[in-house]
Specification:
By secondary structure, the protein is mainly alpha-helical. It is built from seven helices and two strands, in the order E-E-H-H-H-H-H-H-H. The chain has a two-stranded antiparallel sheet. Helix 2 runs antiparallel to helix 3 and helix 5 packs antiparallel against helix 6. The longest helix has 22 residues, at about 135-155.
């Protein structure tokens, strides 16, 4: 339990820190602060995932946030790899089931749109450890194979 002005709560400081209406630089600062506060691996995952979702939603009004979207999504993946319980309700040290992650697929989609297929493929392969993204790996492999074949055929002309 955590003390509050009204008494106490089971919600950790990290999970409560980012204001819902924060935008732009204020939002980014709140996310970084939340990651420094006491919390569980799952709390940090949801802070990062929410930040990625918000930055994606605000991309037109705050395009500079796309750079931080990439940072937060990669940080979330590193957290997941270091502490898989961050994305699972299983009690096991090595969980068998995982919650659906949106932060990393959002970044993969962005990279794919930008033509950074190799980088997107690396991230998608890492995501498969959490039983997610297998279809994305297959699609990206098809695209990279097609581009490789196209490049080889272009060299014959």
């Amino acid at each position: 339990m955590w003390p509050t002005a009204e008494g106490s709560t089971s919600a950790t400081p990290a999970s409560q820190h980012v204001p819902f209406d924060a935008r732009g630089a204020e939002h980014l600062a709140s996310v970084w602060e939340a990651l420094e506060l006491p919390g569980s691996a799952m709390d940090y995952h949801f802070v990062l995932q929410s930040a990625v979702d918000r930055l994606w939603s605000d991309r037109r009004s705050y395009p500079a946030g796309l750079e931080m979207l990439e940072v937060f999504a990669k940080l979330d993946l590193e957290l997941m790899e270091a502490a898989p319980q961050a994305v699972s309700f299983d009690e096991n040290i090595r969980p068998d089931t995982f919650v659906r992650v949106t932060s990393v697929p959002r970044l993969i989609s962005l990279l794919e749109r930008e033509g950074a297929l190799a980088e997107a493929l690396v991230l998608a392969r890492r995501l498969t450890s959490f039983k997610q993204g297998e279809d994305v790996v297959e699609r990206l492999l098809e695209k990279t194979d097609a581009l490789t074949a196209e490049g080889a055929a272009g060299g014959l002309l």
